[in-house]
């Protein structure tokens, strides 16, 4: 097989083992990237390690007159090891930190000043990591003027290294990878264009390091996420969930205030959030609101009014704070459609005016045949990022809809008894929505409200949801 064919095979393999991913990744640094490399995973695939090292050998090491090879810690270490064996050339190891005791050497291995070193690296973005290794090597009197890398992210790193007298050869650039991925139907042309556009606008950014790796929010505990939340209601909710061991939101879709208050008196201790539709109540009064808030205080749950605001900003700010219901006075958080655009969030932000309130933005719906498209979802998540103080989370159905661990995924459409209601509602089980769909809080309505014995049902749902969450974060 020719070199180019092998290169193509390797690219496809890297895609298949998730060493390269496309989407929207929020780094711990807060920056986002549409493409993320995680070549650490290659240690689990000996055939990929073999392919990478043989290609790097053919491509660069074979023709290099270097005396030593040195991998940039940590991902490139196994590759440098394999290359050293293939080329029969000794390897040097650079420590990330000098040992606190003993020799305090930065570079391990036997060498003489003046000898040359070929640096091996997995991904180059700004070139910063390669330079750190180069500098430590140069401090020992060694010559480091050549580097070989698997992927050049084309964000200025190669130029930066050349400026520091390090000549770089890369097996792939993002462009060459994209070409192969498009050819093999792994990514669409649109995605490829989006990535190229991103690269054009993001030159010489900080190299995403292991510490910057995108976090899988669903693997983090609610306690950890409380610390990562910006919105005060999200913080409170994470805290309540962790303390009460409940990720259950009860949707009290009842039309009389006495029935709602009576039900909450019986089940309030088991829920973290109550969700209301205040406009279906036939005897709404201020005293209802007072009693609802008393129950929320007594049992320690928050109140979400599922108003689904969807008008222009000015109207929404009136609907939020005025009229019969004065929602903004008593609801800790509300649901909002992103359909009208940013104005809705701006309006609520202004109405809230520094008081601890929150918004769950609708990114997806549980009903069959709803008209929300992937682009709508993407734009919804983008607009939300502009209002970190206001955003409690998203109402959505999928783990991949957003990645910010400080936001909460609220997912309706949960029931044990049936898979639909004949009017378009689609139900999933507690296990599925927590473990597969990534929900942080599950909304259950009729599964509890319409049950013969709501007190018994609420415990069944709470326990099933909590058990699934504990399994998800690896807690016992
Ligand atoms: P159910 O009885 O569990 O089907 O009630 C679900 C509640 O969640 C109900 O109040 C809906 O208005 C609400 N809901 C939903 O079911 N699906 C959605 O996508 C959204 C809200 Br958004």
Topology at a glance:
Layout: H1 3-16, E1 20-26, E2 32-37, H2 46-59, E3 68-71, H3 77-87, E4 91-94, E5 107-108, E6 116-124, H4 128-139, E7 143-152, H5 157-163, E8 167-173, H6 174-183, H7 189-201, H8 222-228, H9 232-244, E9 248-251, H10 257-267, E10 273-276, H11 286-299, E11 302-309, H12 313-321, H13 327-330, E12 333-337, H14 343-352, E13 358-362, H15 374-384, E14 391-395, E15 408-411, H16 430-436, E16 441-444, H17 446-449, H18 454-472
Parallel strand pairs: 3-4, 3-6, 6-7, 7-8, 9-10, 9-16, 10-11, 11-12, 12-13, 13-14, 14-15, 15-16
Antiparallel strand pairs: 1-2, 4-5
Helix pairs in contact: 1-2, 2-3, 8-9, 10-11, 12-14, 16-18
The protein binds 5-bromo-uridine-5'-monophosphate (5BU).
Short description:
This is Uridine 5'-monophosphate synthase. The protein is of the alpha/beta class and 476 residues long.
Major beta sheet, strand line-up:
9-10-11-12-13-14-15-16
In CATH, the topology of the largest domain is named TIM Barrel
Structural class: alpha/beta
Count the strands?
16
What proportion strand? Answer: 15-25%
Give structural attributes:
18 helices; binds 5-bromo-uridine-5'-monophosphate; 16 strands; 8-stranded parallel β-barrel; 476 residues; elongated; alpha/beta; 6-stranded mixed beta sheet; TIM Barrel; 2 domains; Rossmann fold
Structure description:
The protein has 476 residues and is α/β, with parallel strands linked by helices. It is built from 18 helices and 16 strands. The longest helix is centred in the last third of the chain and has 19 residues. It is elongated and about 85 Å long. About 1% of the residues have low confidence. The chain binds 5-bromo-uridine-5'-monophosphate. The site of 5-bromo-uridine-5'-monophosphate has 18 residues, from strand 16 and helix 17.
